[in-house]
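Sequence only, no structure available. Ideas?
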Amino acid sequence: MSTEDHSDEPFLQAPADDAALEALNSIESWPSLRGHSYKQNEISVVSPGSEVNTFRKLLSSVQEELAQYPGMAQQAFRKYAESGDPRRTVKWFIYRIPEMLFRTDQSGYIPIEAAFASGNGPAARVMLDIAKHAGTLQRLLAYRNQLYGHSLIMLAVKLNSRECEDILRKLIEFDPAGLHRICDNEGRNVLHRCTEFDYCESFRMILTILKRFPSVHKDRIATEAKAALEVADNREKTPIHYISSSGNIAMLTDLDIFLTQMQIVLNFDACHQSSSAFTPLMLAVQKGQFEVCKWLLENGSVDVNYKQHSTCLTALHFAVRAGNPELISLLMEHNADPGFCDSECDLLCCYKTPLVMAETEDVPNKLACVKSLRTSDI
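Reply:
I predicted one. Tokens follow.
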């Protein structure tokens, strides 16, 4: 009898018989190791038997986990043979491997992220239920992607369906402050994502969920929502910028109702840190979004003569450049200054007021633009 000490060896040795070894070698990749990035986890087939050597280097806990899968797979096949129902069989199987909820694939997504990204709400709901049964629901709700920086709700908005409101509610109620405190690698929060990609239904549901919080939390929720709507991403755009650019009136209507009921006043002009940033009004003017411009001028704290500090250009300048007399008239009705010039403008070479720009430059609809600008002299 051998007296060698095998305490440091893996508990599961490589299969001795040819059939078992062939089956093991046919596996093209092993499940990922806990706590490592997905790029390090993938183990490709290099040569016959390479997985055996790799397997023996894994932690004993991971080896034990892997060793359980053949037995579970065998039971799954038996259940399928008995029921003939592949959906129930798959569901039975995945409920028995909850640890896989946190394993990333080659794209860097865990399974529920993949479900959100593909718009599969029912699958995501099942995964939340699996986590609940396994006692890891809080961990899953708090999950943040290390590769891209986003939280789950930033992908969940892609579902964009009233049928998935319960999923959004669960994520928001878990961390309301995450609306503005958690951003992806591009500086976008969940409201940036909704407005940039026109997820109108998700945007509406989020605002509705926030309004339904108990009144005792109203002030805190209003503060979080205001911050989320006013913060700029890495491109110096707020959610209002994206709405202004797309001209999504439905989103503006939902937002208007929300702001009124929550008694929130937004500041659309004070969130820019660089001297070249556009306000939402400037962006809407450039895009020719008349209804959006009208809403912005009539709501919130829009300064119609707000300027780019690097150029001294105002929204009226951009309306002139676009040759849009209707927008020029709208801005003038809200006290836009056709002769705008301050001390900073005087220091700029070749600066022109909106009126001088219309009179001296080759702009579309030149005569109509000049006429609209000169109405202030009448």
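Residues 56-143 form one domain.
Hope that gets you unstuck.
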